[in-house]
Amino acid sequence: MAGGSKPGERRGGRKKGVPNKATAEIKALAQQHGPEAIATLVSIMKATKQPPAARVAAAKELLDRAYGKSVQPIEGGDPDKPINMALQIAFRRPGA
Which tens digit of pLDDT belongs to each residue from 35-48? Predict the structure, then answer.
């Protein structure tokens, strides 16, 4: 009888959905500094002595965290003439 896993069978490793321990530890450590990081961004945004680019970048980061990143539109040409796309899948026998 041949050994090995059956198709779709998993052996060992982390179960699906269980986070990596190192990743979880880093995330927890970073979250401890969250309030201070936000306060820093707010102070940069409000500081008139900061360069405008730094103030805008800080404001953008705060908005992204508060409301999510803005949707990026995708150019697709003329809306009255949509792009036609077709997907073709062909099955072939090995060696054919």
Answer: 999 999 999 999 99
Extract the tokens encoding 19: 């986070």
Per-residue pLDDT reduced to its tens digit, 8-40: 776 777 777 777 888 888 988 889 999 999 999
Q: ∠ CA(46), CA(65), CA(43), 5° rounding?
A: 15
pTM for the structure as a whole? 0.53
Torsion sign across C-alpha atoms 36, 41, 42, 44: positive
Q: What is the sign, positive or negative, of the torsion defined by CA atoms of 36, 42, 48, 51?
A: positive
User: Sign of dihedral through CA atoms 12, 16, 17, 22?
Assistant: positive
CA angle 62, 57, 43 (to 5 degrees): 65
Amino acid present at 72: Q
